[in-house]
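[step 3/7] inverse_fold.run input=structure_tokens len=192
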């Protein structure tokens, strides 16, 4: 099975790139496809993590696609691995609260694809791919442990700041699975 990320941000933000790299680590470069990457410079960067198409998924001819859509009425199940060849995600930096952009940019325009949800909490794109991969390998979503809205202490000299990520993450040994690069990025970001 292959995972498709429809790149839907206006540029390749560092946070987005970190998530794309993390997704590639989860599923492997050969199983990852990026679509709608218009910039040759961005294409060259993203190509390190998977196959890149300039065209949108709306114009490409992939069959047996399942779109991961938060508003879907059906939840992804392990037996969906036999029904679909491709699992499609919107590569969108998350807004909180969620703005329904997957529905706006993909669901409303892709009429011949089935949709599935990953329950009712918003996830980062890399977490959604990780959860999908776990389910397709046989794990039921009810058996996956999650941590919602984790917070991190960011130490900066004498001042400590706490950053809250208002999303759902997979839990491993009581800690959220989040890219170490993302934590480093957040710690070094000057405008938090």
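[step 3/7] decode complete -> sequence:
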């Amino acid at each position: 099975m292959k995972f498709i990320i429809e790149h839907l941000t206006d540029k390749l933000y560092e946070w987005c790139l970190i998530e794309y790299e993390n997704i590639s680590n989860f599923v492997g470069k050969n199983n990852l496809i990026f679509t709608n990457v218009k910039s040759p410079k961005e294409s060259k960067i993203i190509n390190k993590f998977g196959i890149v198409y300039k065209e949108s998924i709306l114009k490409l001819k992939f069959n047996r696609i399942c779109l991961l859509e938060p508003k879907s009425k059906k939840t992804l199940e392990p037996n969906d691995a036999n029904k679909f060849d491709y699992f499609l995600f919107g590569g969108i930096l998350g807004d909180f609260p969620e703005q329904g952009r997957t529905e706006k940019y993909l669901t409303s325009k892709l009429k011949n694809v089935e949709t599935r949800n990953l329950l009712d909490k918003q996830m980062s794109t890399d977490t959604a791919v990780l959860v999908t991969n776990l389910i397709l390998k046989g794990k039921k979503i009810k058996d996956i442990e999650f941590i919602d809205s984790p917070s991190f202490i960011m130490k900066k000299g004498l001042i400590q700041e706490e950053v809250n990520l208002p999303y759902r993450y997979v839990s491993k040994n009581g800690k959220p699975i989040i890219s170490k690069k993302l934590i480093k990025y957040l710690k070094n970001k000057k405008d938090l």
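[step 4/7] annotate
The chain has five helices and eleven strands.
The mean pLDDT is 89.
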